[in-house]
Design a protein that fits this description.
elongated; mainly alpha; 238 residues
Length: 238
């Protein structure tokens, strides 16, 4: 089956859903990282990371900070390995789409040549590859941050605050790349719905955007991050 035939079997609705997928991925990422007057959780956490490094520069015992950074690096390593395994699984299915065809047809998808299924799965693989690259870069940036943190002089010595500021910005860049990797995995999951048709893909995209938006702008964790003193007792209800 030639590529031209596969493209001919791709309906305008499929192309529209694919464009919607790319637009939604770019738009929600931009909205989260450039939120304007309503800060997202990602932006709020950037301020906390700067506060962390300011406190770090003033501490004599920094073992706890090293443990925190090690935990963050372990998280990026775990997700990088997971996304790499997922890429391998998707490529394995690309090489043998027969079982997938029967399952998709049973769930309501119409018959289609193998190349059509392969094209749809490659979109999933592309998002997973994006996630892998972001997680690997995040892991490396956390490593840079660890080195710079090690170069922060003892409290009271000159240059401590400036060096801690560098570590904070590296920490923030690492976290943002980690979040980008997570968003790519979210949209990889949404892209699998394309196997059931354009309508299923559009619905999955809308659900994914809603989940990402609600967690960044309407979650309970965001409210807690904005409270000056979450430990303070609340006023009794009238």
């Amino acid at each position: 089956m030639h590529v031209e035939t596969a493209l001919a079997l791709t309906t305008p609705w499929d192309l529209a859903a694919l464009a919607f997928l790319a637009l939604a991925w770019l738009a929600i990422g931009w909205r989260i990282e450039h939120p304007g007057r309503t800060p997202s959780v990602t932006v709020l956490m950037a301020d906390y990371r700067r506060d962390w490094m300011r406190q770090y520069a003033a501490r004599d015992n920094r073992i706890f900070d090293a443990q925190l950074l090690g935990t963050l690096r372990q998280g990026t390593s775990f997700f990088a390995s997971t996304s790499l395994l997922a890429i391998g699984a998707v490529l394995a299915v690309v090489g043998n789409t027969a079982p997938l065809q029967s399952v998709a047809e049973d769930l309501g998808g119409g018959p289609a040549p193998a190349l059509v299924w392969q094209m749809k799965l490659l979109v999933v693989a592309l998002f997973l590859a994006q996630a892998f690259l972001k997680f690997v870069w995040s892991h490396r940036l956390f490593g840079y941050c660890a080195v710079v943190m090690g170069a922060v002089p003892a409290p009271g010595e000159p240059g401590g605050e400036a060096r801690a500021g560098q570590a904070a910005e590296l920490n923030i860049r690492a976290a943002w790349n980690f979040n980008r990797g997570l968003r790519a995995m979210y949209f990889a999951l949404a892209a699998t719905a394309w196997l059931l048709g354009a309508a299923a893909l559009a619905l999955a995209i809308a659900l994914t955007v809603w989940v990402l938006w609600s967690r960044e702008f309407a979650s309970q964790s965001r409210k807690l991050l904005q409270r000056e003193n979450p430990m303070a007792p609340r006023a009794p209800s009238p």
